[in-house]
């Protein structure tokens, strides 16, 4: 009996896509020194390639209907550990060591919670290579312009994101409505932005700056209780125009601006 894909688990499996799989292996540069964490192995299309190269592969899968298929394919491989659990409920640090690389075609319905969880585990995770909806990858990786959002800054605060390549929807079974993209996040080990501005402070200002997409910075920061005159002076000191919009600020602009706010 063949496997019946479940929509509720975001199951769009890569079909016999040697080219896509090969490209994933190339850009994620998995070596024999790497411990790889795979979220959602599905029927193991990517897992098989990861096992050919990596030192160790830990795969976390929620769907018990896939357990038998995965165990049959990989259980005799000593490099492989299967964790049958919800990734969001899994204590990642008890399965992988420092320096782990994530390589995965993740379930899209929990893209943000997964990225947050991986960032929270940055003590053991160095690099994240994931497949996400194309539009989400464009938003996370945008360097300037209207695709930037709180999500972009939430990733930039912890690491460097890069859009790697697009994958057409036809590469999956069943074929989803949207195209996908493969992207990376290399997590900063030096906490370069966190050391300058605490997380809660950083997000207070970033959220305010993006609170109304159509408004400029002066009007959005006014929601924090500052007078327009105070805001003009702060923006002026940061060398940012009062008519500028949040989407055109880099993370460095935000850090400079928030430092001025907090020292007033
Ligand atoms: N890696 C496979 C591939 O590329 O063919 C499957 C990718 S499919 C997009 C997502 C996988 O994540 C499915 O196997 C699904 O069952 C699994 N999954 C969904 N929700 C999950 C969760 N909360 N924790 C762990 N795995 C989950």
Explain what you see.
The chain is α/β, with parallel strands linked by helices and about 260 residues long. The chain has two domains: about 5-185, Vaccinia Virus protein VP39 (Rossmann fold); about 200-264, rRNA adenine dimethylase, C-terminal domain (Helicase, Ruva Protein, domain 3), CATH 1.10.8. It is about 35% helix and about 20% strand. It has ten helices and nine strands. Strand 5 (about 100-105), helix 4 (about 110-120) and strand 6 form a beta-alpha-beta unit. The termini are far apart. It binds S-adenosylmethionine. S-adenosylmethionine binds near residues 12, 41, 46 and 86. It is found in: Cytoplasm. Specifically dimethylates two adjacent adenosines (A1518 and A1519) in the loop of a conserved hairpin near the 3'-end of 16S rRNA in the 30S particle. May play a critical role in biogenesis of 30S subunits.
The coarse overall form would be: elongated
* Low confidence ranges: none
The share of residues in extended strands comes to: 15-25%
Order of strands, widest sheet: 4-3-2-5-6-9-7
Q: Determine and state the CATH class of the largest domain.
A: Alpha Beta
CATH superfamily of the largest domain: Vaccinia Virus protein VP39
Please describe the biggest sheet, giving its number of strands, its sense, and whether it closes into a barrel: 7 strands, mixed
Q: Write down the oligomeric state.
A: single chain
> What is the domain tally?
2
Supply the helix-strand structural class. alpha/beta
CATH architecture of the largest domain: 3-Layer(aba) Sandwich
**CATH overall fold name of the largest domain:** Rossmann fold
Helical content class: 25-40%
The sequence of SSEs as H and E is: EHEHEHEEHEHHEEEHHHH
Bound compounds: S-adenosylmethionine
